[in-house]
């Protein structure tokens, strides 16, 4: 029986990592590998194996894994430890419903504090999205657009929860956006939303965001229902 290659072999460490940067470098390296699919769902993140790979002690590895777990990129499984989380959970409808609540509140709090620079940044991201053809980059830019609008919300814990949801969506969009055909619709929604935000129309902006996320939830739900994939196969 042919043995499956170890996904960690896709990660190359070309030079020693300074001790004071170890946690951040490990976190960023693993995060990128998870997001671009080199570390698929179900991949076990064993501390000693990672410590050997990065040439560090287990302490910065443990800290990096905790950060990735907090970002919903890893799950802790009994008798297996930390594993790469699914692209999107089975309860995606519930996840989106929660995102609508959290992001609506973040937008409501942020709009009065947004300045011209924030609006210009969001507009530039939309322009970049309309030019971009790489779906990995589209997923990243989509996250940055939403965070540009929410970023002035004073509740940092709320923003952290919001960003976790956007991280999960970014992973999913990287692999499935083309098949779902959301691109043009999303950019029209983004421009409408930004126009209302720029005018400080809080209630109208929140309603537009709600409708935008509802459309996304409906498309993703239909798409997931059409697939017959079992993420557990990747864990075998």
Question: Describe it for me?
Answer:
With 236 residues, this protein is mostly helical. It has 2 domains: 11-85, Arc Repressor Mutant, subunit A (Orthogonal Bundle), CATH 1.10.10; 92-226, Four Helix Bundle (Hemerythrin (Met), subunit A) (Up-down Bundle). The protein is 66% helix and 3% strand. It has 10 helices and 2 strands, in the order αααββααααααα. Strands 1-2 form a two-stranded antiparallel sheet. β1 (74-77) and β2 form a beta hairpin. α8 runs antiparallel to α9 (202-226). The longest helix has 25 residues, at 156-180. The protein is globular, with a radius of gyration of 19 Å. The protein starts with 21 loop residues before the first helix and ends with a helix. The model has no long low-confidence stretch (mean pLDDT 85). InterPro entries: GntR_C, TF_FadR/GntR_C, Tscrpt_reg_HTH_GntR, WH-like_DNA-bd_sf, WH_DNA-bd_sf. One of its GO terms (molecular function) is DNA-binding transcription factor activity.
């Amino acid at each position: 029986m042919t043995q499956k290659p170890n996904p960690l072999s896709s990660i190359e460490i070309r030079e020693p990592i300074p001790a004071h940067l170890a946690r951040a470098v490990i976190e960023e390296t693993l995060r990128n590998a998870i997001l671009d699919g080199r570390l698929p769902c179900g991949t076990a993140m064993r501390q000693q194996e990672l410590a050997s790979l990065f040439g560090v002690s287990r302490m910065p590895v443990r800290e990096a894994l905790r950060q990735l777990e907090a970002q919903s990129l890893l799950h802790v499984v009994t008798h297996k430890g930390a594993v790469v989380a699914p692209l999107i959970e089975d309860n995606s409808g519930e996840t989106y419903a929660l995102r609508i609540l959290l992001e609506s509140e973040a937008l409501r709090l942020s709009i009065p504090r947004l300045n011209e620079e924030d609006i210009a940044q969001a507009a530039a991201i939309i322009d970049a999205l309309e030019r971009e053809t790489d779906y990995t980059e589209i997923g990243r830019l989509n996250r940055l657009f939403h965070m540009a609008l929410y970023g002035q919300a004073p509740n940092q814990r709320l923003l952290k929860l919001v960003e976790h949801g956007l991280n999960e969506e970014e992973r999913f969009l990287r692999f499935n956006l083309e098949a779902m055909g959301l691109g043009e619709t999303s950019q029209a929604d983004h421009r409408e939303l930004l126009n209302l935000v720029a005018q400080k129309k809080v209630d109208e902006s929140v309603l537009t965001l709600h409708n935008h996320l509802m459309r996304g939830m409906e498309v993703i739900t239909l798409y997931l229902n059409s697939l017959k994939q079992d993420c557990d196969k990747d864990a075998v």
